[in-house]
Design brief:
The structure is a homodimer.
Chain A: H1 4-39, H2 46-57, H3 62-90, E1 108-112, H4 118-126, E2 131-135, H5 138-147, E3 152-159, E4 163-164, H6 166-175, E5 178-186, E6 190-193, E7 204-207, H7 209-214, H8 216-222, E8 225-228, H9 232-242, E9 247-251, H10 253-258, E10 262-265, E11 275-282, E12 293-299, H11 306-316, E13 321-329, E14 332-343, H12 349-361, E15 364-371, E16 373-375
Parallel strand pairs in A: 1-2, 1-3, 5-16, 7-8, 7-9
Antiparallel strand pairs in A: 3-4, 3-11, 5-11, 6-9, 6-10, 12-14, 12-15, 13-14
Chain lengths: 380, 380
């Protein structure tokens, strides 16, 4: 048995040999991309890649066929990347993105819920000069932005304890809007009731289902019954109307004060860090130098490894995915679209080439936005 | 400009050269694994891989650094795969999985909801000989299985139009249960009311929020108000109690009949194909030759590309992921665990080696089950 240092020395020597061949192969890829720019043709020709793999696999022992397949898949994938990048550099118009000016200081912004809801607070943190208007549902917010009644809408997309708000992603697709801002806000729920209410007199708590989930342990400890409302501020308003000391709301302190409730206890959420990420949506796609995040939605061809293949492309460009989640495609059972966020900027060549590659290789791609990411002060 | 055939001939020749070197490198990997079996030591040594990459990148032009990084990452990853596979073949006890006999014909099975709910129907399709008992909540089902009151529990995990039931995944982790079966069922909602109710007399419809979402378009067309209930059968029962022709339930035809309602219209769901996937949960991990699916949950170290890296491992083993979704980790904002289903069987060497590699390289891995996948007749 050889010493590990000796084996590693061999490995390093082999890797240097492979590198030389790899650089030659990338030169060939450049020739291919020049040829395709002159003569047309897709960069990805699945039949050519399958044929190449089949040919190569003939000379490989069974126990290394899968390992080599991964290597060749990566080789051809980064070869395509190199081609897309060069082609887009030479002909930027290959990537068609209708980028319009961003409304950075909107006059009228809609949000879901009632005044003093967390959505209202996020709205005012994002757009302190805007007139803010509450809507009954998130769909109403999206509709108002599409119609032009509002310059922007503010809605929650994810909570650090409850997870993704699926409905918002469905609405983004349905109404064809774009993300212009992202803002993380610390959520601190309190429990509040009408005058004379105490923690012991309470039997039922009213709130939004997510807020109730975020306070599960607290609620269980007290043995309260749960009643779901459409919004935490709606719950606070209802408790004020009912004026019944057996009922309390879980809401923001601002909502408790606005509706004249007494705060029975603050910070009743289970986790110390309960944060919600909000987005602003606008009618057009925009991009600015300070943007640090890009969102897109894509669908895959239904083949083995295709999700992995599409995610690998992000790593090939050195672009870090911060989120991925799937949603079912309407009327196509067990087929999904994937929503992906990554650290990028639509004005950067890497991000643009990545998107160009995805649009060439996925069944469907829509860029949902390029935007800056802000956080409420004190957020970790 | 050369002809594309000539360039491709060069590429094929280069790939054959790379293959020879790759096979030599895999021989070295075998030596490394023999060394580590004899002397101990982890297969993945991140500092060694970083050092190797840094050394290699010195000789590479800027525009190819990312491409080569992907190639080397894949090379080292499949080299580790080759080592894990050999080590586990030589020493199967390296993978510790406490596999117990499966209860294939349970006596007592609990489900959430009421008799004639879809969950009850799924239950009887999976376990026709079992005594079935309804529980108020999914958590009650999980608790009863943990306590030994029930031999198995049946719960829904995913709907083809509404998506994942996040709560079930959280409960799987919280109660430490295992998946023993998976069953897809076609969901056909009807709308039903008390005697004398017509589609025009109805003003409000009661149902589970997911069922309401699945009938969104139908409900919108009729302008009905929505009222959320905990279960479709609970809604049917309530409508029977209320005996008010302005109110109707959205539920299964079986539930409508059981609670003496008149069916106003059948198949009111939006999609033609509305299917729900149910799982059976048991106290212990089991595996049988006919199993075709494996589920697991893992957490990643928080580094760039690590999600992609972990998914790449599935492709390296030729194992097809059928599902992936993330859930927030409690008390760790914006950190996630990933639930992954793939086509595999815990008794197969490929699946076992994959799991061994993941347990060695991820921060946390738990196998959630190995199980057969059944479908209601007529399901596409």
């Amino acid at each position: 048995m050889r010493k590990i240092e000796d084996i590693r020395r061999d490995i390093n020597a082999i890797d240097h040999e492979i590198l030389k061949l790899f650089l030659k192969r990338m030169k060939c890829a450049e020739e291919v991309s020049d040829y395709k720019m002159a003569n047309g043709g897709q960069v990805l020709v699945p039949s050519r890649e399958t044929e190449l793999l089949d040919t190569m696999l003939k000379d490989i022992p069974d126990e290394l066929k899968l390992e080599y397949s991964s290597l060749l898949r990566t080789t051809t994938r980064v070869s395509r990347k190199h081609q897309y990048f060069r082609m887009l550099e030479a002909e930027p118009e290959r990537l068609k993105l209708d980028i319009q000016p961003r409304i950075t200081d909107p006059k009228m912004v809609y949000y879901g819920g009632l005044p003093a809801s967390y959505q209202d607070m996020a709205c005012s943190e994002l757009f302190p000069n805007a007139e803010r208007r509450p809507m009954e549902s998130w769909e109403d917010v999206f509709r108002a932005v599409v119609n032009g009644e509002a310059d922007a809408g503010v809605v929650p997309v994810e909570n650090s304890t409850a997870g993704t708000v699926n409905e918002i992603y469905d609405l983004l697709q349905q109404y064809g809007l774009y993300i212009s801002h992202s803002h993380v806000k610390v959520i601190r729920h309190c429990i509040a009731g009408c005058k004379g209410t105490t923690l012991d007199s309470v039997k039922e708590v009213y709130s939004h289902p997510q807020a109730l989930r975020q306070c599960q342990q607290y609620i269980k400890k007290h043995g309260y019954m749960l009643l779901e409302e459409s919004n935490t501020a709606v719950a606070a308003n209802k408790i004020a109307q009912l004026a019944d000391p057996t009922k309390a709301a879980i809401c923001s302190e601002a909502a408790a004060k606005l509706y004249g409730l007494e705060i029975l206890e603050t910070s009743v959420n289970d986790g110390d860090y309960n944060q919600t990420r909000f987005i602003a949506v606008q009618r057009t796609l925009s991009a600015q130098p300070g943007d640090t995040r890009v969102s897109l939605v894509l669908t895959l061809p239904h083949v083995v490894g295709s999700l992995y293949g599409s995610l690998a492309v992000f790593a090939d460009y050195g672009l870090n995915m911060t989120e991925i989640h799937s949603r079912p495609l309407p009327d196509m059972p067990w087929n999904y679209c994937f929503y992906i966020d990554f650290d990028g900027n639509l004005l950067d060549q890497d991000t643009r080439a990545l998107i160009y590659q995805l649009t060439q290789e996925c069944a469907y791609v829509r860029v949902l936005g390029s935007y800056p990411v802000s956080q409420e002060e004190g957020t970790k």
